[in-house]
Design goal:
By secondary structure, this protein is of the alpha/beta class. It is built from 16 helices and nine strands. It is 41% helix and 11% strand. Strands 4-9-8-3-7-5-6 form a seven-stranded mixed β-sheet, sandwiched between helices. α1 packs antiparallel against α2 and α14 packs parallel to α15. The protein is elongated.
Length: 482
Amino acid sequence: MHSEIKSFMLSFILIAVLPNIALVVLAAWLDLGRPYVNLDYLLAAVLMFTKLRWLGMTLFVVFFATDVLALLAQIFQFIRLDNLIYLSKFVLQAPSEYQFSILGIFALFFCLTVLFWHIPKLTNAKHALVMLNIGLMAYGVYVYSDSTNTDKLWRLAENHIVGSPTLHTIEHRSRGFLQTFNMDGPAFSGEKPASATALWQERERQPAPKMLLVVSESWGVPVNTDVQKQLLAPLARLGNKILWQAEGELQFHGATVAGELREICNLSPNHFNLRDVTERFDTCLPNYLRSLGYQTSALHGASGVLYDRIYWYPRAGFDEITFFENKVWERRCYSYPGACDFEAIKVAEAALAQPGKQFFYWLTLNSHAIYDLRDLVIDVFDCNKYAIPSNSQVCRNLKLQAQFFFSLAQSIEAGNFSGVEVIIVGDHDPIITNLEEKAAHFVDNKVPWIKFSIRDNKTEFHSVLHGNVAAVTNHTNTKLSK
């Protein structure tokens, strides 16, 4: 009897306790979301005490792999499992804490496998019943626990006592959003969307020698126009460092990648399965500029596998591409897993400082929902001044947007981006889960854009865009006040 109890306790610790402790500690170290107890392991533990022992061990392997992948996906997002092959190439370039984490996971799995092999085979209905009751109690906690901290697509709720990464994966991977990454049929419609880059797309005009296109994540049109003026105030205060400025709005509804394709290629996607799509990228702006002798570069702080950017960015004409996985960053940001925009701006500065004709594209990241204030290092926007609740999603979005424009203005003030022609445009309006809150503060399905040229530190020039902005759009443009 004593031996049976000892074997039972050892099995319970190895299957249900040790993996949870190890991965909770790992999640805390890397600042990732994970429930304290993974319910999945308890099912494997029940089967380990029946005649289906091998099924229990197999399920444990599956559940452990899913648990690890749920953590990994919060750092390097992936849509398909074969994306992991691509991401694995950058393990040696990853920060040391990620490398040690991967080694630790493999070591833990190896040790558990060896220990499982040496546990005496113990088929005991009473022990299986005990494990089943423990599992049912844990499931009850899971079902009836507070769900206000809802799991996100890429982040498990970290405040839940009990959770199931396997159920989370099945639930989110069966959503229509992710199913569009496996759809067939024509990738693009015949519709030509209105874009902020319309003049840059015209083949008869002479492009500026250095060009910066920024698609700003979740930058919307505030109902209160003074809010937008406040966001853009750091640029307006640059005075004669900026030789031209104008602004406008676009009617648009769609995902981030649709906003990108709108500005880069003047295309509207039917679905997001772009991995094997090759047609119609030849007319994209980077390809056109490359034919004119430009060095073309792109930057996005998230994983390149998301939205198949590792495949279609090169087809669109980008020579140099920087994603989260192919550079060692000083820190990680949280609104969406990836690099921090206030660090990423250095990549843009360096590229546009190179001699010769340069086109640089930057898709920002940190103003992505859920607008995590851990990404805020420069707070220059006072929500109370505009009667915006300080704990609202709207306030967090605006603070992160203000940080971006302030950081960009600081860089320009420091002498970076000399002689660069700039377009900044929103990808889509902000995602605000409280629809009443959104309606009170943002115009639905509209994105803003601004265009300006930065004084050359050596020779003054005037943007060829000056006086021709009306040709881009029917919207009224307004000169930004100093």
